[in-house]
Design a protein that fits this description.
- The protein is mainly β and 222 residues long.
- The chain has one domain.
- It has no helices and 16 strands.
- The protein has a five-stranded antiparallel β-sheet, with no helix packed on it.
- The chain is elongated.
């Protein structure tokens, strides 16, 4: 089951790795990274983006989800994210894609959802918005953050950010004004319910930021 938004397709399958790599002309790479953020009945205003995967060569032993981190030298090109769908009337909900039956997403007044780093420069988008605590988010809604043409690196609202010194961890943030994390966040209306926001992050690593592999092996004795 996939969810399409624009020219991108989300593949929300926790049983598979979720990374695609395309080589760039300069020897660098473009990486499509898919991740998810878990919604619960507890209000959250900073929701970790996690990468689900399983231990290689086994269908039973699944590793825990790990935080989405971009490597040093990465430059973000585009971020898309999509909230859970409202299941079609009369159909069974699809686990991890649809909201549970009778469940909505609630928030405080005028909440904005964004994808941003856990530290450093925060790039935000003012939509989508949850209008009030008593109403649900628009079904099947999605948002796109994308670098605007002509914008220099680090220039708002450009999404490009060069990482230096350490890896950058991304998260879904909820706020009601600007870049602040004010407000109480968002939650699911049913106690014990679980649902997921799915995100697609495209970033670039230039050729000089990729360390070449070495196949040099030590000489065998004798």
């Amino acid at each position: 089951m996939s969810i399409s938004t624009g020219s991108l397709t989300f593949l929300p399958n926790p049983q598979k790795t979720s990374t695609q790599i395309i080589n760039a002309p300069n020897g660098g790479r473009f990486i499509w990274q898919y991740a998810r953020a878990q919604l619960t009945s507890t209000l959250q205003n900073a929701i970790p983006l996690l990468v689900p995967y399983v231990k290689p060569n086994t269908q039973l032993s699944q590793y825990p989800d790990i935080p989405l981190q971009l490597p040093v030298g990465a430059q973000i090109q585009r971020v898309d994210f999509r909230l859970p769908r409202t299941p079609t009337l009369g159909d069974a909900s699809i686990y991890e894609i649809d909201l549970p039956k009778g469940c909505t997403i609630i928030g405080t007044t005028g909440e904005n959802l964004k994808v941003s780093p856990t530290s450093g420069t925060t790039h935000t988008v003012v939509a989508p918005v949850i209008t009030c605590a008593s109403s649900s988010y628009t079904p099947n809604a999605s948002a796109v953050l994308q670098r605007q043409s002509g914008q220099a690196d680090q220039s708002s609202p450009s999404l490009i950010q060069t990482v230096s010194g350490s890896a950058m961890t991304l998260q879904i943030t909820v706020s009601n004004a600007g870049n602040s994390a004010a407000g109480n966040g968002i939650a699911l209306s049913l106690s014990g319910a679980l649902a997921y926001i799915y995100a697609s992050i495209i970033y670039r690593i230039d050729g000089d930021a990729i360390k070449p592999w070495s196949l040099d092996l030590p000489a065998m004795p004798g």
